[in-house]
Amino acid sequence: MGSLWGKRKRTIARAAKAGCLVVIAAVVAVFSQSANAKQVVTWTEQTGSGSRAWTSIASSADGSKLVATMTGGSAYISDDAGKTWTEQVDSGSRAWIAITSSADGTKLAGVYHWGGYILTSDDRGQTWRSNGISGGSFDWTSITSSADGTKLAATAKNGAVFTSSNSGATWTPQAGSGNRAWTSITSSADGTKLAATVNGGAVFTSNDSGVTWTEQAGSGNRAWTSITGSSDGTKLAATVNGGAVYTSSDSGVTWQEQAASGNRAWTSITSSADGTKLAATVTGGVIYVSSDSGVTWEEQTTAATGAWSSIAMSGDGARIAAAMNNGFISTATVKEAPVTPPTPPTPPTPPTPTPTPTPAQPTNPGAPVAQPTKPTGEGYLADTGDNVWPLASLAAVGIGAGILWIIKRRNS
To answer: For strand 214-216 and strand 222-229, is the pairing parallel, antiparallel, or unpaired?
Structure first.
C-alpha cells in the first residue's frame, strides 16, 4: 500500500478520467480528553466527629475506614468514610501526636507526646498494646506503616528513627539515621523505602527499611513539616512551613519547588497511591488539592477554614479526610469534571468532476472516432487499471477499515 501510494500525486484537485465517479469522505477530527481535567471536590463537615483538638488522621486504602487522634482524649474510628465515629476507650486518654493505619484499616499504630511507649492495635482499635521503647520517653513527631501493617517507622525530635518489623511488638533505634529534629516520615507500600524530613535540615531517605540513610542535599535545608509518597516510594511531596510544596519523582534524589502551591503555613500533606493526586492543609487557612503531582493547585473554597492539623487520602485519590484542631473532621469525594469535546472541523467540499469530453467527429466517413486524451499531470489520478485508488490510511466517515477509497466506474 505504501509503495503504491508513493506513486500517486498527493494533491487531488478534480476527477481526471472520463466516466469516473469520485467519492470523497470527510476526515474525522481525532481528539482526546485532557489528562489534567479539573476535579470536582465535594466537602462535608462531619459534625458526628465532634469538635475536638484533633491532631492526626489516617485512612485505609479504599478510604472507608478512618482513625483519628486528639490531644487529651482517645482514638476514634469511623467505618463509613467519616459519617459516624466511635471512641476507642481502650486506647486511653493521651496527648496523641500521630496515627497510622494498614491498607485494610485493621492494624493501627500511634505515638503520643513524650511517650515511653508506642501503641498498636491489631483489631481496628478495639484493644491496644503498649510497646516499650528502649531509652525512655521521646518527643514523638510522626509514624508510618507498610500496607500490611507489619513494618512501622517512627520519628522523634532530637532522636533516632525507630523501626519495627513485627507490627510494633519490638522496636529498634536505627543509629544510621542519626539523632535529628525529625518532623515527618513516610513509607512505601512494602516498607522498604522510607523518607523523612528534618526541621531546618534536609530530606533523608532509606532503601532498606531504615537501616541506612542518605541525606538528599538536593532537597535543601528547610523548615519541613510533612512528607508523603506514592506506594512505590518513587514520587515524594513535602511541605515547608512558610514555604512552598516540593516534589520529587526519583525517590528524593532531586527536588522541584512547586511555586504554584504558594508560600503558606503548611501542616500536612497526603498522596494517592500513584502520586499524581495530592492534598495538603494550612493552619489558619484552607485545604489545597492537586491532580498533576503538585504542578498546579486548587484552593478548596467549600471546605472549612481553620487550624487544620492532618490530612489523609484513599489510594485512588477519590476520598479525602482532614482533621482540624478544635474543629470537626471534614471529608470529601473527588471526581473528574466532565470535559466538553472540541467541535470537529467542517469536512472539505468534494471537488467538482471534470465533464466527460465529447468525442471528435470524423471528417471522412468510415474513419475511426478519436478518443479523448487521458489527462495527466499535477492534480490528477493516474489510471492503475484497478477498480479503486487507495488514497491513505486516514480516519474517514462512512469508509471501512480506516482506508479512504476513490472508486472508478468504467464506461461500458
So the answer is: unpaired
